[in-house]
User: Fold these one by one.
Assistant:
Number 1:
Amino acid sequence: MSTVERPARRGEPAAKLTATEKFLTFALADEEYCVPVLKVREIIQMMDVTSVPHVARYMRGVINLRGKVIPVIDLRTRLGLPAQPDTAQTCIIVVEVAAAAAVALTGIVVDAVSDVLSIPEQDIEEVPDFGGRADAACIRGMAKFRDRVKIVLDLDVVLGGATAA
Amino acid sequence: MDPRNRASMKALSPPSSILPFMPDLLRLIEGLFNQAACDLIVGDADCRVEIVLSTLTAIERHLAAAGADATPVLAAIAGARSDLPGLGAEAAFERAQAGWHSWREAVVHQSGFQAAATAPFDEAGGARSGDRLDADRATLALDPEFAGIFITDSLEHLGTIEAAVLALEAAPQDEALINEVFRPFHTVKGNAGALNVSSVQELAHRAESLLDLARAGKHRLAAVEFDIILKTVDLLTAHILELRVRLAGGRERDLDAARARLMDAIDRLLQGGGGVVASPAPANEDAPAAYNRRAEDQPGSAAVKVDTRKLDHLVDMVGELVIAQTIVEQDTSRAQASDERLARNLAHLRRITTDLQRTVMSLRMVPVRQTFQRTARLVRDLGKQSGKLVDLTLVGEDTELDRRLVEDIAAPLMHMVRNSIDHGIEDADARERAGKPRRAQLTISARHQGSDIAIAVTDDGAGLDTAKIRARAIANGLITAGDALAAPDVHQLIFKAGFTTADIVTDLSGRGVGMDVVRRTVEALRGRIDVQTTPGRGTTFLLRLPLTLAIVDGLLLQVGSERFVVPMFSVAESLRAQPQQVHTVQGHTCVVRVRDRLLPLVRLADLFGIGEATSDPAQGTIVVLEADDRHIAVMVDSLLGKQEVVIKSLGPSLANVRGIAGCAILGDGRVGLILDAAAIVRSQYHDHVTTAA
């Protein structure tokens, strides 16, 4: 397996990826997204979310995950997509992000979860700036799989936003 | 460099005639300061003033002889000298030293003497680039895991030694106690030796040698020996803490000189210098605070060290288990009515779960012993400083409370002990004149009371001086001369903010600390503090704290579709308001008349932006919250009942939500937000003030 160097984005150090990475794909609005499977802790059914006042609009609230209280964000709102009521397929992907001292778990509400795919690194293309849209930073790249395109999310950016409303 | 700084630097710089001699002068004076600092550690209390005065005089003479224009330093020294009676020898010395350091920095910076002038004082002359602790740090850094264990274990051993030494002081011939002091010193020395931490090993070895002679009967332990041993414990602790700081990349103090002098002093003792060995056992009168442990057991139980994260996870899982078990019981309640076997099995399951929960919660509890024993050292030192004779008795050291609380109550406890000895307890002669025994009794006790722990600090001193408190309260504007207050109310004034004035300084100068600070600390821990006193007979401070900070008795509130929990501790009362009790001010701000008080009314629905909640105060329920002696009325839809909940944090991303202190998992498994009552009360009073202005 050869390692290939990605051309560096503005100000970013060149990242070395291994040839193939596994991604969990899911649906949101009419598009398909994916995140590295190594960051996914578990997938749970939609449950009652306790809302928290005075937080960012995309912060849905908190849930009880087997004794741990974790925040849950609405990915649609976070990416600037129109909101929609939950359906029977709506679920929460629990991901882990490295935070200050420990690993922090966060839940992401998505429309439906699809599969885990192995996508070769060279099939992930850089995404142009789209004229500087706010959520463009959340996107790590676009992955070509068979004849479909899946948007690869950068979880650290998606979850790194401040909470102040 | 900023031109303004350059100008002021010029004003500070010495005349060019002595510039060639500066490095030596700086080193000489630095040496004098260091030497005095060590002597202050090792010397007797009554020599301190002497040491400081003679050092300052010597330094002044050197500066004058060298013709240095060291006005700032001389001013600092003069200031220290005049403040010495008020501040105490050590604080005055530190002030002079601070003045010296800032002048020296300025000089060094300006004339580039950096390397030479700031080197630690070395008898052999010449600057050294690092000190022994740097070398030891480098050695420890090679194995971070062992380093961490070494530091934790050593601190633990040093704590054990201190407690044992205080007990030994009361019975210096007791062989078992001598061994109790000897063994941990031996262990610390051994561990330090194994890891090549030479500074710690050397010092511990000296102390161990002294104790070895003592247990062989070849060296009697008298006041000087105990002082030296305790100073060794302090210095070893300082070494360990400094090593920890340095391993983390910082650097706080230089300890080489202090260590050298202490080892010198121990060597002189070991060689029988000063005729100390031959002196008879000290008369009872001079013995420092006798320390009684009314404790029953010696810790002989086996114990294990557990990662607290595992404990917390265990607590979480058991919490979930209880909820799941409750849900199963509720869901099958109808089936249980007809199936006896099912009912019996579920009851069995419930008993096991309850037992498991109680056991797991008790894992977080530790005995209050370690915090109590720290007071023993303080009582001894304060007794010696003030010349008062105080016997300390500790009762109920085995009483357990949450491990997080044990640390938090240490500071308030120390403050109360200090106040007792400073203000309550009289000196031996005054006591004798009053017909009391010359030795005062100070008792600290702990016991469980319901779901709280009750800690009492009792002294048989002079009691609170009602007249003096009244006078001070009037002087500070808390009450007017015309206010008629009964004695108990006057006593409560000591807890008021603003009662203590600026001349009550920090721990360093040994003065009392304001009781208002103590009360605020205790209330932040959801506790209460009160005082009882009898003039001439003594004073008791009573502390009540919840056994654990992690669990709170909560009142569940419904607001729209949301549920909140407010700690019962913050709830004064609840009521359904009659329309005539509610008044509107300026068209929108509401106040409610509760008994004879008008309280600002806050609608939680408005505060948190919750729609579809009851808006008419007369339709909802009013809960009166209290914090800082202030009250507000909060309006909710209804009360849902009481529940004991485990407090969980909302996590770093949601830590700063206004008005919310955390969250809890409610009986049905869903998350409920816990209100920060104090913040809500405070915000209302702040706004209240600004809108009224």
Number 2:
Amino acid sequence: MAYWILSAILLLPIVAAGIIFLLGRWLGDNFAKYLTLIVSVVEMGLSVIMLVMYLNEDTAGFRLLDEIPWIPDLGITYIVGVDGISLTLVILTAFIVCMAVLASWTMHGENLSAYFALILLLTTGILGTFLFLDLFFFFIAWELVLVPMFFLIGIWGGPNRKYASMKFFIYTHLASVFLLVGIFATYITSGLNTFSIIELAGHNFPTDLAMVIVFLGILFAFIVKVPSAPFHTWLPDAHVEAPSPVSMILAGLLLKMGGYGIIRILLQVLGDVFKEGFIIPNVPVYWLVGIIGLISIFWGGFVALRQDDVKRLVAYSSISHMGYVLLGVAAYVATDNIIALQGAIFMMIAHGVISPAMFQLCGMLQHWAGTREIGLLKGLPKSLESTSVILVTFSFASAGLPGLMGFVAEFLVLIGVFQWDTTLAMITVLGIVLTAAYYLWMLQRVVFGEKSEFLDEHAKPVPNIEYVSLVLMFIVVLVFGLYPAPLLDMMALGP
Amino acid sequence: MDPLLVLLSPLIPILPFLALPLILLFRKRTNGGAVFSIGANFISWLIATALLIDGIFGGFDEVIEGVERVVYTFMENPKIEFGVLIDPLSVIMAFIVSTLALLIQIYSIGYMKDEPGKHSGRYFAEITIFVGAMLGLALSLNFLFLFVFWELMGLCSYLLIGFFMDKETEKPGTGPASAAKKAFLITKVGDVLLFGGFVLLMLEFISAGVPDPLNFVSGKEAVAGGVFAGKENLQTLIALLIFGGAVGKSAQFPLHVWLPDAMEGPTTVSALIHSATMVKAGVFLLARCFWIFEGTNALLFVSVIGGFTAVFAATMALVATDIKKILAYSTISQLAYMILAIGVGGVASGLFHLLSHSIFKCLLFLGAGSIIHSYHTQEITEIRGLHKKMPITAITFVIGALGLSGIFPFNGFFSKDAIFASALARYNYILDPLYLLLFVIAVVTAFMTGFYIFRAVFMIFSNEPVEGHLEGEHHPHESPGVMTYPLMILGSLVVLMGLGSLVGMIVNIGFNPASETNLHHWLEGLVIVSHDALDPNIVLMLVSLIVAGSGILLAYLIYSGISESQKSGFVGKIKLSTRSFKTTMVTSFVGTKIDYVLVNRYGIDALYRNIGLGLNYIVGEILYRVDKRVLDDLIVHNVAKASLMFAGANDSFDRKIIDEFIIDKTGRGFLRLGELFGRLQSGITQNYAMGMFFGLVLFIVIWLFGYFYGGF
């Protein structure tokens, strides 16, 4: 039995994008804006239907499959399906795109219809990455994301947008080459003549040096996207230049593609290599992944301390937070404790909601306070009181305040890391202090003190519509922070 | 226990949180939302009081092992539930917290009257979260929720220390913003140790098959059942990590530095958070999971830290001139007493002192607040003639000071004596001279306590004119009733609790919650030293009384005013000679050095500050430079260059991008890129978009084709 729902979720945005491309010129920017909002809300609705259908079906592994042979000779199949991991990520995608569209509401400028069309196109790309269970289509979706993102940063970005968009494109494109080669190598090594993730996941891959190299190549592709140290320098530039709704999607969803890829392909398909492969004698592959995660946590954190631009600071904090995803996956491989993997996925969801909120706040500062420079924002509450309250709230959410989502994720990941290696874990927990340090250091310079002269001249009152998406995101962060059980149950159904 | 009360008990922590949205919604109409915050606190207090009364009249005997009331399941794997744990410890703690919080909140109405932050609702919003968190902590039934509330209190502490947000100071590293950050980060160091400790404990329990691995009750059973048999080192490690959390929160050496700075917050906040409740959380934690510490060497470490911090903090109080700083050092020192008591195995003594300290220190802080409110200064050298201007404040302040010094029959006397007795009993039990030393240190600290608090009292009571101030510059007056009534209530509690202890000691009446004997009974299983060792020991009491009294006497001789009638008499002569001796000592070479060290807090604050600055400006800067210079300039740009060389020239668009990308290093590239994008923006975008769209149409057509004919 084939299900229609996933294909509908996947293709609706791209169809709408096409309509806007074709008719946007005549119907104007407002048409594009409303159509995009409607589509993103419908996507939310569809993802709720998907959730219900998913829960009604009671099979192990992937559900809601829709499968069409494409090029049978090569083993390429159009196949979409979800398990607990991709299901939550698809819902997150629908939600964050909604929020980003709301955050774009007060945007001004030319050619907004193209902007909204590209957002929709991007949505299909991201959803495809999460939904396709065929490596060939996975790669197409993966690549599809790059193009709209390149234009969104390059056209609607800040003053240095060309450099940033180029850097983004080159970096991720180079990574894609490794991914493509890695996918083909996996395809050939398996000898199954199929690109299907489901079938490949059941195959036992050799754990020799050649396969380890393939693994490392794909790993490179994914950690560029995550991004992890030392391949992270594209991210701060891309964020700083991107318009804030695009930053929301970039931080909330694009980075998750890397983490998802690590779980879906490196863990599920190449799990044997992950578990038993060695880079050099006595150093298993998962140690490398864990150490990269750990270094990212500290690298991102320390550099964040030195930032003078709020948005750049949040970008570096993303690098730091995504380090927990790698660490959690590595801990899962090392200990076989599902809690660590749940933690890694939960971190992706938590960061996927909190960081978009932070980036929206950055955009609001830029727009309504006139700057994102920490030095100029001194005494912000005197001008933008509610914005300051929300900034403090989300800063603490991002710093892992218990009772909110980020804490649950850190808690679960650290359970796994403690089980794996106590020393490593004790180093990791110090990263929590570091995270608190850079946020507090920023807040000290922004929220406290007399109002700066700059704000006196430039600050404007914020319209209430800007708060709608922030409040919605906070509710999500609070509800699942206090009651993570349903989300975790879903993830427990994963691999 | 009454089932209805147990059913209602989760409301104790939840109600204050529910007040938060009401405050935020109606803050303008209710002038800051005090009514919601205080109302919620009041209902919580009613339930807590009912529980306490029920408990005292027999209920506690039923729940000594703890009764759980689960509200919902937080997560399944590992199993963690939210709910409350009803046992004597949690009920007593919830009662004292809700009582003091209620009094302080009422007092705040008067004290914060003119603060803009109160009218905006910020003050009561933050206070109500704090009250909820502290009550939640007291009643939490597992480590995870204890930690959740623990951290929430840290957040509130941060926000409330930084309450006066606009205040800027010249000297870097001072002022509310710095103090708030310092408090949060220093305690966070302790927090992550605690976090590590309970995660390790949980993993051990999971592998031992304990069904509810973070729950206090099942944890206690598991340890009693021998989970750690043969793994004593692991148990000690876990105990030490958990103690790390207590060190941070209860401001013990070496993480004590944040508490004196925390006095930047409003005095009500200092009273509530930084003396009466939150800083007690560390002590409470040790009592709550004493079963991990029991029988390990970690307890020795706990008692040494406690003993050392007690005397260490007291030395700094000797030279402080800011009334709130004196009280802050005193809090550190008194908390150390409780830690010491727990370290020597006298959990009941530690909690007994926790109760009495909460009351008298809260009284002292509120008294100080009343003084500051009226004199507009915190320097004890600038406050004069308190008892004439503010009689109620003055009397209650002296009662608090007597409680703190441990003078018969005020409550501090009995609780401090219990701690001395515990230390001595421990020494008699294992005859380790270290415990005798700890006992001596505790007694010396008692002498210093009497001295430093009455130094402040005598200075602010004296009538000598203040240098540089004109007479009558200020017109201090007694505070309004909303502030003095809480002072009077607290003052009478100090006396009543002391009298209750006295009666309890003589005839051991069963319903007296303040009696150590009863605490001992209810907290059974938390005590190592035998009950008999704590029977009233008249000699010990006399020693403690004499020591504290001589401290007060010395303060009297040095700091009290000399009236005309005294001048020629015997008392006047002694006063004068003591003073000249003191001046000689203080101005001597060694004296000035010691003074310098004490005023600079042994240099520990500066050390931590430099570590922080070093991490920020050195490590952060180096890594940032690596990002810019090495990763970007050296590697990424050269890799881009190299990939151009290897790339085929097939795709002109790609080639163009890479081409531009390399040239951008020379600077000219930006110009050419600008042209490219200039063109893109001026209409070509649409062309690209159209191109892209037709590509997609093709894609969809192929897809549809595959969909319908894919079966072939």
Number 3:
Amino acid sequence: MNISKKLSIIVTLTIIEISFTIWAAFQISKGATFHQLNSLHLKFNAVFSEQVVAIQRGDRMEPEVIRSTIEDIREQPIQCLKQVNILDKMIMKQIGTDYALDLCEKDIADADKALQLLTDYVSGTLDRDLLLEGLVAAAAAFNDNSTKFEAPITRTVSFIFQTMIPMVIFISLFNILFITYLSKTISGSIGDVIALLSEDSDDDSFVERIDRNVSGELKELLLAAKDRIKRDLFNREMTKELERLVDQRTVSLQRANDELAQFAYRASHDLKGPLTTTKELAKYIDQDIGSGNLDEARENAKNISSLMMRLEDLVVDILALAKADLDSGEKESVDFNELLTEVVERLSWLKQRDTVDIIQQIKLTDQPVVERARVAQIIENLLSNSIKYLNASADTPYVKVMVSDESRDIHIEIEDNGLGIPDDRKDDVFKMFKRFHPTVSSGSGLGMAIVKKHIDYMGGTIRFHSSNNGTRFNITIPKSGV
Amino acid sequence: MEFELNNIPILIVDDSDMDRYILKRHLQEIDMGENIVEKIDGHSALEFLSDFENGKALYGDEFPPVIIILDINMPKIDGFEFLEQFSILRTEVAVESCVVMMFTSSERQEDKDKAFRYNFVKDYLIKGEYSNQELLQKIQKMLPGR
């Protein structure tokens, strides 16, 4: 049973009890009213008797006064009958006091008779002696009625008293006990719910326990509260999560900005160098030609040439780096044999290329679908490094290119026996403008950064292992269209 | 030891052949190119300066150099590392007469501040942005006792 039902039972019981008590009080007071009416009846009858005695004595009779008195008498039983309702009649019938009501009717009839006598006398149809006789009889009748009226009324009142009071007490006691019981169960349920909430339990067993142990409105209350709190918590979590994301993004952006600033500085610095030097050298060529120092002039002209080539490489690489972030290429199915031949051909300008053994091992189950340009650049940059940084004191400097695949990825491995990557520079490998053997070769310092960007863009991975015996790069690129 | 202006021994420390070549020509144009030693990085420069006996034997009075023109971006031991080690060297060997002019393409204020922390660094030259006139004036200002 839920709490609101219990509460309405409590209200109902209280209403019943109060109604009952009020009704009992009315009934009891009715008894008092009857006694009162009876007293008045006696009083008026006393007055009437006196008037009759006075007339017998020989006093003058005033019919109207007598009439009025009789009417007063008559009024009392009329009032009594008015007061009595069906329930009262039933009770009086039960206890056998209903003859009191007949008495009232008789009394009214007696009064009517007396009144009739008076009317007859006044109209002259009745003589004085008969009237007197009648009046005396009436007075006696009234008196008799009154006397006989006492007992049943008293009896009825005490019956009501004797039954109502215990019933009121009983109902009150019952109510007290029942209401106490109901309130106890209500506070018990609430106490149980509090205990349930105070326990540590995970969400599922919590809902289960609510289901089992709680019912009605408390259950609804708990479930509604749980949902509300969950929603609030969820919102708060979301907000926290969003704030965290924003912070993360901000840090990311700041870092990107810093990187960009650094890059811009380094790039312009590296671009400016060759230009400044060329400017000076051109001046000297002019001077030297003028002074006839043609050998010097030629030497400087060659220097300008190589400076410009380096500058061109740098610009090309900066462009490649920028392009690497853009979605430029379409994917196509690539023949790796063809690709490798092309790349090696492109590296023919490297003066060490002829001293290096370039070994190809291609074991592919099909022609993978990739962005050709990116893969080509990765292989070209790594190959070019292996060639540039070969170990001149090795017996046969070589670089091995191995391409294989499995169900979902393409594997590219590039291994050489060159100078290797110094241990303390291993973290700098993919950073921009980092050259580890500047005395051996100078490039833009962007080659590996370009490789990393391509691999990141394609969702692949690159690892390397290096010592002064050589270096090995392992690259994995996911196949697309799988 | 007093030198004629055009005979002052100068040490150029720079890893770029062409930068050294250009500087040398500038010095020749202002008539100070007679007495130039070149080193390609901080390491060999320090070795040269610290090996006092050998230096004196090879170069006589023209060792140690009066003026060191020093690049910043060099492999192995760069310009700042050189300055640090040189400041220690000055307490051990009689090279206190050497004064340094930085010679670099870096215009960064932080690099200037870092260099001038050493009291023997007297000036700062930016590659490609000086005239012969300026070069002469700077060197003259640097010379001790002038």
Number 4:
Amino acid sequence: MPHRKRNTIVSHTLWQTGAALLLSVIAGLLVNQIRSNGLSLWGSETVQEKGDLHTVSLEEAHRMYLDGKVFFLDARPAADYRLGHLPGARSLPLADLDRYLPDIMEDIPQDAVIVTYCDGKRCVLAGKLANALREFGFQDVRTLVNGWSVWVGSNLPTEKGNGKNPA
Amino acid sequence: MTSDMKIHQVPERPAANILRVLIRVILGAVFLYASFDKIIQPAAFAKTIANYQILPDILTHPAAIILPWLEVIIGLALLLGFWLPGSVFLANLLLVSFMGALSFNMARGLNIYCGCFTSTVVPGEEISMGWYLLRDGIFLTMGFILFSLVFFRKDLSE
């Protein structure tokens, strides 16, 4: 390929790339300003999990477990539950919520202390499960953020197997 | 100008031309289509970006605001056939980045069961992760082919 032509296509690529980036920044910022559901430019409100008011720390969750008064609900899929879960926890995968909620929650009073958990800092399953349970009328539902990993990470006791698992 | 250059050039290969036009039209449509949801629902897109846990939180919103419009411009450019070297380069850059982000997260075991990639939990989502990978792989392959067809053309008259 002639040397001069290679330079031309490279310079074309460069200015076109720059122009495209510039246009998208302008278009994006403009539209974001004008619209009603625009985002704050440097904010992170979309990143915050809903239900922050209803979280428990690992220490609190452990204390509740030692007091023996809490119901742990594992919001992850059943396969993960079987490999290991919090002691005494019941499996209520968010994906199967409608199917299993009546059975799993049958013997849990509406004012019982319930803690949902899943795995990972950004996992949304436990928070959604907690919201759903509140809508069902359970009054004290909280979430252990990044549940499984932090519990295991502190070498707290766990169980394996089916436990109270519908599957 | 085109006819002047053609005197000194190797004749065009019609098959390569057809392939090039076909790929750029398809990819252009894909990019345009991909941008719509992101423009209509910026908050949901910001959430998706955050869930990949690759960008720092503070860059989530700027990315959610700018990226869809970049896709619009790339899509239009590919579809209509202007700014081709630049748009093809950018298209490949984006496709490689998406593929990289997806693969990286699968490799580090980001809990693909956790409903992180959509704003609603879809049962059997772990299956769709594989499909995303396959689909992006196909687009990436098309992008690479288009790249070589545009950047290594024998006459470079476009």
